[in-house]
Specification:
The structure holds two protein chains of two kinds.
Chain A lengths: L3 E3 L3 E4 L5 E7 L5 E8 L3 E8 L6 E2 L6 E7 L2 E6 L8 E8 L12 E2 L3 E5 L1
Parallel strand pairs in A: 2-11
Antiparallel strand pairs in A: 1-3, 3-8, 4-5, 4-9, 5-6, 7-8, 9-10, 9-11
Chain B lengths: L2 E3 L4 E5 L4 E3 L2 E3 L5 E7 L5 E7 L5 E3 L5 E5 L4 E6 L8 E8 L6 E2 L3 E6 L1
Parallel strand pairs in B: 2-12
Antiparallel strand pairs in B: 1-4, 3-9, 5-6, 5-10, 7-8, 8-9, 10-11, 10-12
Classes of the chains: A mainly beta, B mainly beta.
């Protein structure tokens, strides 16, 4: 089974801190995604990456950046954490190029619940 | 543009009762449709997906969903709910882009 691992389940950070959320997948997936999940708002796409060193803004990129230096790792960076970035962050990956319909579902990590105080 | 609506924020059922969670989508052609489940404190797990062919799709954990083009719907069903089914359920639609759009989720509460 594909595994998507998010390094922390819970994080508490102070306002203004630089925060790194790490995501690693072990099945050579090309596409990786960062979502935030808030009650009543569902999942909102922050950034995604087609492949190594490639990144694209999602629906709510403000206040975030990403890094994809290696295929298996996709990092979400909060340059200066603010209280409105308190949320659950979900990483996902997807394989391209596999025979349909294998490549049409995402595999999600367990999430990182970030609290900014 | 694609969009998806889950009209029910919460659904409460008794254990053993049948379940139907609603999902309506908007997209000009036939989309790809997904249902995911999220147990408390966990990530999302794919329950089932529809791409083409048979409009009744079977998934894991005894769930099924039916694609109805005329109603732009993809409702999730289960004939008999178990207490362990209590979770958040998300419908997602994927159109021309390979990036899906997720609904806001429906929280399922199961009473003993």
């Amino acid at each position: 089974d594909v595994k998507v691992t998010q390094s922390s389940r819970y994080l508490v950070k102070r306002t203004g801190e630089k925060v790194f959320l790490e995501c690693v997948q072990d099945m050579d997936h090309e596409n990786m995604f960062w979502y935030r999940q808030d009650p009543g708002l569902g999942l909102r796409l922050i950034y995604f990456s087609y492949d190594v060193k490639m990144k694209e803004k999602g629906d709510i990129p403000e206040g975030y950046s990403v890094s994809r230096e290696k295929k298996e790792r996709f990092s979400l960076i909060l340059e200066s954490a603010s209280t409105n970035q308190t949320s659950m962050y979900l990483c996902a990956s997807r394989l391209t190029g596999a025979p349909r319909p294998t490549n049409y579902g995402y595999t999600f990590g367990s999430g990182t619940r970030l609290t900014v105080v | 543009a694609q969009s998806v609506t889950q009209p029910d924020i919460h659904i409460t059922v008794s254990e053993g009762a049948s379940l139907e969670l609603r999902c309506n989508y908007s997209y000009g052609a036939t989309p790809y449709l997904f249902w995911y489940v999220q147990s408390p404190g966990q990530g999302l797990q794919l329950l089932l997906k529809y791409f083409s062919g048979d409009t009744l799709v079977q998934g894991i954990k005894g769930f099924e969903a039916e694609f109805k083009r005329s109603q732009s719907s993809f409702n999730l069903r289960k004939p008999s709910v178990h207490w362990s089914d209590a979770a958040e359920y998300f419908c997602a639609v994927r159109g021309g882009s390979y990036i899906p759009t997720f609904g806001r989720g429906t929280s399922l509460i199961v009473h003993p």
